[in-house]
Amino acid sequence: MSEGTFRVMLRMQIIPGKEADFERTWLGIGDVITEHPANRGQWLMRGAEEESVYYIISDWVDEPRFREFETSAEHLEHRTKLHPYRSGGSMTTMTVVAHLAGSAVGAAR
């Protein structure tokens, strides 16, 4: 990740009992995003404090390229496949200003 990266964070409330199906679907269709030439990667995280809440972080080379993808037919199809699992959500966008790597980066796991 580098400074200037455009980051998108989604908060998704999943219908209780649909979490495993959501995770499986998300993993199965993720390449729609990661294969886009402007995408730098994405992460799926389950919230620790709220049941059935997930966060998705997606990094992009810049905002215009993300917005181009956001309005594409591929993105609409991607959202359609995830929609049956959602009961709510929100999106936050930001630009990475700086990154300080921790000492555990590169350490054996």
UniProtKB/TrEMBL annotation:
One of its GO terms (molecular function) is monooxygenase activity. Residues 6-94 form the ABM domain. Coiled coil: none annotated. PROSITE patterns: ABM. Gene3D superfamilies: 3.30.70.100. Transmembrane segments: none annotated. Pfam families: ABM. Keywords: Monooxygenase, Oxidoreductase. This is Antibiotic biosynthesis monooxygenase. The lineage of its organism: Bacteria, Bacillati, Actinomycetota, Actinomycetes, Streptosporangiales.
